[in-house]
Task: structure prediction
Amino acid sequence: MLLRNRKPEDAFGLQPSEHSSILLLIMWQKIKTYTIAHLLGLALVVGGWYLSIMNTSADRWQSVKFLSGANLVGLVMIIIGAYLPEIWISIKNRGKSS
Result:
């Protein structure tokens, strides 16, 4: 008689509504991690590109100089921005099972 009135539970002893809210929180955390990492990487790529282009256009009427300090900083920003999201996500997910 008691088994009929009992609510269904999963393997962890959670009710279906509790289980879905925990999954939504975990999924929201993953979405935030991926979004923040990729937006930061995009900002670095765009900032590095802008810095390099602006520096090159500012030196237009001077002698040809391809590797100035600002161009190198812009190049480093682009490279860091390209690889930062994947490094950030792998460090954040280190030790977690999928």
Summary: The chain is about 70% helix and 0% strand. The first helix runs from residue 2 to 5. Residues 41-57+66-93 form one domain.
